[in-house]
Amino acid sequence: MTDSVDIVSGMFAEWNAHDLDAVYGRLTDDYQEYLNGALAKTSRAEARALDESLYKTLPDYTRTVEELWGLGDRVASRFVIRGTMSDGQRFELAIRYLWHPRRPRQRGASLLRSGDCNPR
User: Fold this and answer.
1) What confidence category does residue 103 fall into, taking pLDDT thresholds of 50, 70 and 90?
2) Which of 14, 75, 91, 107 registers the highest number of CB atoms within 10 A of its CB?
3) Taking the domain 4-112, which CATH number applies?
């Protein structure tokens, strides 16, 4: 059986390889994302569409993991999305995420943004 931290760690590697088929193959059909407690995305297709637009906007898009730890079927992470926009401006967004993997696939996640997590 795959550990929840290993599932999420694998997803970060897949995002950085721009392999969305692999990332979204790990998500269940009923995948949901919450932003500060409010339902923000209601399907894996909706979540994938956002990532596809980020890859178009930031062709050198990467996620740098600052912290990743878990207990049971919950995983917490802090990571930074970085990239360069078409006008040469750098983009950076720090994110805190709570993952809810349901083995062997990811069921949901909660994105937490606060004052120290703003795009730069």
Assistant:
1) low
2) 75
3) 3.10.450.50
